[in-house]
Amino acid sequence: MPRVVTGKYRGTVLFAPKGDTTRPTTDKVKESLFSIIQQRVPGARVLDIFAGCGQIGIEAVSRGADSAVLVDKGGEQISVIKRNLEKIRAEEDDSFRIIRAPYDKALDMLGEEGRKFDLIYMDPPYKTAEEAAIRVTGKVAQYGLLEDDGMLMCEHASDIDFDVSKMSGFKAVRSCSYGLTVITFFCKE
User: Fold this and answer.
1) Which strands make up the sheet holding 181-188, listed edge to edge?
2) 43: DSSP letter
3) What are the angstrom distances between the C-alpha of 38 and each of 7, 42, 133, 157?
4) Which one of 6, 18, 41, 141 has the minimum C-beta count within 10 Å?
């Protein structure tokens, strides 16, 4: 079970969807991710795409981010995110917004609202990570969803091709490998 590593919700064990439709980010990978971006988190507006159980957005707010938008298309995933927000007593908190929609539709909606984010995290199914990252970066660039000094991160598998040169408008600045999991960090070109 995923848990909140540190901050105001520290130690909270989160619910995760049953079965193999989601793959929660391990605590080791999550701790490393937040160690890398820790200076960017306080006051940040976070977008968590393919949110699963919502743990990345919840961890970010726990560590001082102003808000997190949690996007997933699955009914079970959205139900689990709601249960997790109830568990941390944030279900009516302005810090969180849940969007149940396919990621491209959610990005269109956020773009039309004129939203901007400091941190965007995506954890798509590993088999389609490259394709999803290409589409996400295209939409983020189209709508200007990422602040100029913002960071976009993609979790993907080390044993499946992931060509960073295909992410239009973005350049890879770092890639960290944790066994079969890789997180690639992008900034605007």
Assistant:
1) 96-100, 67-72, 45-49, 117-122, 146-157, 181-188, 170-178
2) T
3) 12, 8, 23, 23
4) 18
Task: For residue 3, give the DSSP letter.
Answer: B
Read off the pLDDT of residues 35-82 as tens digits, 9 standing for 90 and up.
999 999 999 999 999 999 999 999 999 999 999 999 999 999 999 999
Q: Residue 72: name the closest of 92, 55, 48 by CA.
A: 48
CB 109 within 8 A of CB 98: no
Q: Residue 162: pLDDT above 90?
A: yes
Which domains does the chain possess? Answer: 27-188 (3.40.50.150)
Confirm if 110 and 47 have CB atoms less than 8 A apart. yes
∠ Cα 3 61 105 (to 5°): 95
Distance CA 81, CA 125 (A): 18
Concatenating the DSSP letter of every residue in 132-189 gives: HHHHHHHHHHHHT-EEEEEEEEEEEETTS---GGGSTTEEEEEEEEETTEEEEEEEE-
Nearest Cα residue to 81 out of 95, 71, 94, 93: 71
